[in-house]
Structure formats: C-alpha cells, structure tokens
Design goal:
Layout: H1 3-34, E1 63-64, E2 70-73, H2 79-90, E3 101-102, E4 118-122, E5 135-139, E6 145-149, E7 157-160
GO molecular function: hydrolase activity; RNA binding; RNA endonuclease activity
Biased composition (Low complexity): 53-67
Keywords: Hydrolase, Nuclease
Length: 161
C-alpha cells in the first residue's frame, strides 16, 4: 500500500461517517415529523386516545355519538367553527384553497371509508396567522357526518347537528 493509499483511506472513512451521520439525522427528522403515520401536529400538542378530545379542546357538555366518537352540539363550537359549518352548508365560498379537498384519514381515527369520503375545512382560530390547528372534517355526499378537531387531527369529536 502506498503512502497516498494510506492517506486516502482515513479520508474516505470520514466521508462515509459524515454521510452516515447525515442519513441518521434525516431518518430521525422523518420519524419526528411522520412517525405516527399521520399529519404532524407540532410540538406541545397533546395526544388523546382515538375518538376522544384532549382536555380543554371540547366543552364539558359532550356526549357519545353513534359511531363511538364523542359528540359535541353545534352550539358549543367556537363561533368561527359555526361560520365554517354555514359555509359548508352553502357550498362555499371558502377562504383557503385546501378547503373541500379530500381528507385522507391517515391517522385512522375516523371510521374507515373509501378514499374521497372525507373532506376537510379550515376553521380560523383567533390569534393564528396561518391555517392553524382547527378543522372540520365531513363525511359523505350530504355531507352525512361532521367531525371537529381542535388539535390538527390528533383527536376528533363528532358534531351533533
């Protein structure tokens, strides 16, 4: 082995170690963002068992809904959520281009249905400067069922209408 070969060997080991470290960092980042198989809610967002709302996200007057999810009366929702429901009932217009698009239910918290069954709508949250975490997800062509999430898809409460 020549002197040049011996000098090149540590350099290529360093390159491999650096590439491995970068790959490990990317895997860790991917796991942190997509580890649950669903949308990332971000740091500090409480999680809850499927079909329930974390403490503080739904008023205390909720009741069980027919599909096993907790239910909340429409009148108990924040005013901006009731406004979004009125827009859904009217067929629009909606303030965000994502409104009315297919919701994939990647979290698996809602009952399993065929692709395209669920649609999502943004609910403006006071004090947020972007779409924020509040959404209404509808199901069916009517729509037939409505769900509220105050924590960006970490839990759902069925809206009783």
């Amino acid at each position: 082995m020549t002197r040049a070969d011996r000098a090149a060997a540590p350099a290529s080991r360093r390159t491999l170690l650096a590439a491995g470290a970068v790959l490990a960092a990317l895997v860790l980042l991917g796991w942190l963002v997509f580890g649950s198989g669903g949308d990332a809610a971000g740091p500090g967002v409480p999680s809850a068992p499927p079909g329930t709302a974390p403490s503080g996200t739904a008023p205390s007057g909720t009741a069980p809904a027919g599909d096993g999810a907790r239910g909340i009366a429409e009148a108990e929702l924040p005013p901006s959520a009731r406004e979004t429901l009125a827009s859904i009932d009217a067929g629009g217009p909606f303030p965000y281009r994502q409104d009315g698009q297919t919701f994939g239910n990647r979290e698996g918290l809602l009952p399993k249905r065929e692709r395209g069954y669920y649609r999502e709508y943004t609910v403006d949250k006071p004090g947020e400067d972007d779409r924020g975490p509040w959404r209404i997800v509808t199901g069916g062509r009517g729509p037939d069922v409505y769900y509220w999430t105050a924590d960006h898809y970490q839990s759902f409460v069925r809206i009783l209408r």
